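Lab manual, section 2.4: Encoding a predicted structure.

Procedure: take the sequence of the chain (121 residues), apply the prediction step described in section 2.3, and record the output as structure tokens. A sample record is shown.
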Amino acid sequence: MKYMLMLFFDEAGWGAMSEEETTRAIGAYAAYTSALREAGVYAGGDRLGPVASATTVKVGSDGKTSVLDGPYAETKEQLGGYYLIDVPDMDAALAWAARCPCASHGTVEVRPLMVMVPAPV
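Recorded output:
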């Protein structure tokens, strides 16, 4: 079953790190990604651009589309990246989430993916 590990952290904290701290943090994520790949559970993932680069789209009940710069909600932590993993169950997904570097400086939200429509044959 596929699970999304959504990585939330204080984006400003990354900008405040020294070059050495940044290198160490990037190395930790690279090692984690390698471990996921070696275990055969990695199904995808990426780091997201800064929240200031976000655009929000909303369609109101009147059918009118609104396009807004920046995030829709102000929060202390922002969605900064994700991993998509394919593991047997939620317990395995939670075990991988606990190993993620983000779990020690932010929050890792784990959600199962739900198949919306059958894949084309």
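Check your result against the sample. The mean pLDDT is 90.
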